[in-house]
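Quick one, probably user error.
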């Protein structure tokens, strides 16, 4: 499974926001500078997290993004699905019923074993992401990381 690069961007940006004071906001430009990402593309992607209820956005001179709720209430699955949607990356096209190797119809009454196994793997992946919150990720960072992140994000505020 290959996810779009924007998934990585938003996972890191959400983790960064989880390390900041819950009352502070951070602009898309600050996050773009922090990670050396294209500002317009990142701003567009961050809106998908707002639409999904993961982030809130405010406008104005002190506007920006922040988590919509505590980091312990935001899962990696919510972030990933905000970008990529909930559908499985595997789609069975029933090629077992095509070509010279086509199985008889009576052997294809049940779901294709490959489709079933791929669906099981996708559900296991989703369960794992759903069981991991941004707070869990922050807790696994080095102890000095949140303070360092807050300092460096403040340094990006000026441009």
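Nope, works fine. Designed sequence:
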């Amino acid at each position: 499974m290959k996810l779009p690069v924007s998934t990585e961007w938003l996972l890191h940006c959400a983790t960064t926001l989880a390390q900041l004071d819950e009352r502070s906001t951070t602009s898309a430009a600050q996050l773009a500078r922090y990670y050396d990402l294209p500002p317009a593309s990142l701003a567009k992607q961050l809106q998908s997290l707002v639409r999904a209820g993961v982030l809130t956005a405010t406008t104005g001179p002190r506007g920006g993004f922040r988590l919509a709720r505590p980091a312990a209430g935001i899962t990696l699955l919510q972030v990933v699905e905000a970008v990529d949607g909930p559908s499985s990356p595997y789609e069975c096209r029933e090629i077992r019923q095509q070509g010279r190797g086509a199985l008889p119809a009576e052997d294809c009454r049940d779901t294709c074993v490959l489709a079933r196994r791929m669906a099981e793997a996708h559900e296991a992946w989703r369960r794992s992401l759903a069981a991991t919150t941004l707070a869990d990720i922050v807790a696994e960072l080095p102890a000095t990381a949140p303070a360092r992140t807050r300092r460096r994000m403040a340094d990006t505020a000026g441009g």
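Residues 5-156 form a domain with the Arc Repressor Mutant, subunit A fold (CATH 1.10.10.10).
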